[in-house]
């Protein structure tokens, strides 16, 4: 068998490839070419490699490409099997006068022919060849060698066929194909364009697994594509805009790519473009914004102008899409624009190290206000049949981001929309699994099958909580929210979210957004306690909420790193206890005693005496746990002290309980051990309020305070009310 004969036999693979769209019936092929049956018989009966070579050559000569359909290919496979191709792929000895890759080329050609059958493409004997086939993509050799090129084409044919099977991508990734494809593309080996196409398919099918197996190689491809994008002056830059989002990693985009990506986008978006040219650029920018925030945009004049341009274009696109009723909305593009608007909102509200100057912020806020007006207009048209569509979810998300920072503008429109928002949030809360699925669909709308960067919350309520927190302070919006049943919904939501943080659940895997959501709920309830106390007294949902707060706080105050949430729970519970003081649950029950003991722990451990060099007297200082978060904590602490003071005369059992905790004695001891000048007036007022009410409520408290030099301490701190109270019998 000569080298030329081997090459001729190899054309069988090409016949199989060319015949992929030709499917005549088998009996028709047999009637036109009865000789083929004899040669197939000879192929089946071949006793050694030479006879198989000869039979393959006869089959090749007996058929034309157009004569091979799927059934004929299957019969050729039945005659050849996998044993012969296996030996061809692994043998290292070629016939005299033949290059060493010719036998492998024939083996790959046979596999390419067989892989045209989807059933064979997923056969274990094909799958276990993936590592060998992957090495062919980067093997060195003469780039002009026709046989080598043919082998590489056949290799891509095999790998592409495997990728098209249900579990094929997983096998390719495990077999090292992703790294091989990256290297083939970066080396501009023959067929590198096929390598890129196959990479795109694998990333779309199994992005996370691809990055896990071949992160360094994929990052190298991303760097290469980014450089090409920055340099491109022709239409290829628009093609790269569509490719690049698929190659952004699920963690973070390497900083070395930022400059090239931003420069390429600036060149595109700064030009006059048609929508088909602009939209992929907006999508890429949105993906970068979601993954990196504003880190990919350079600091300085050029960066601020670019960011302003991005947000401006996004707002224009949103208005064009949503203001015209009946216009077909390109939901993927508008969702990408929402992501860019969120970036604009974040930068406009950032006080330090913002990319934008104040005049730019003012201008962008005005532009975004108009775009948010268009979003509200769109949502007002949404009927019940569309509420579960992912684009509606995306629209509520951007509105929630806006309301979290700005509620004074568009107040009339927002109030008009509030009933819809409450109904929408309730619908998604009651169907939580569908809400989470909607979040994933929104991520898909926003360009990628997976979402790097901050996770998109899977429930509409969490999106709306910050805005509702602001709105419950205002009379008009608060009345609408109460009328629509928002407080009851928020209580149910709080209790459901609280379950996720309760003992028995692994809180280490919970996203920070769960705890932030609980804190925001507490802020809303605090607003309602202050502005609508009658609601707290009459709505049964708040009784359930109070019970949960009482049973939860004792364990919460003991948990490391959750002091801010404990502060919210303690303060809210104390304020509600003042309104619900006649409730049986607060009449000295074990739960109520445990709650107030935990509240005292929170209030009493905030400050300590700290020695100062060169001074005989210590100063009052924040305790270490409180010091780092006091800016967020102090308002809650002072409100909690005030609320505790108000509870003492309403709950007769509370003063004796406080005395048993030794809080009043230890508080006087602390004040007596530090310099009065180190205690701020507002602290003095807070401490005096608690001490006076405890002293008035209980004779034993007064006696204990006197024994702790209470009168002397009151005199030093000019606590006239406490001094007078302790002077009485």
TrEMBL record:
Transmembrane segments: none annotated. SUPFAM superfamilies: ARM repeat. The gene is Ncdn. Signal peptide: none annotated. Pfam families: Neurochondrin. GO terms for cellular component: cytosol; dendrite; glutamatergic synapse; membrane; postsynapse. This is Neurochondrin. The lineage of its organism: Eukaryota, Metazoa, Chordata, Craniata, Vertebrata. Belongs to the neurochondrin family. GO terms for biological process: bone resorption; neuron projection development; regulation of neuronal synaptic plasticity; regulation of postsynaptic neurotransmitter receptor internalization.
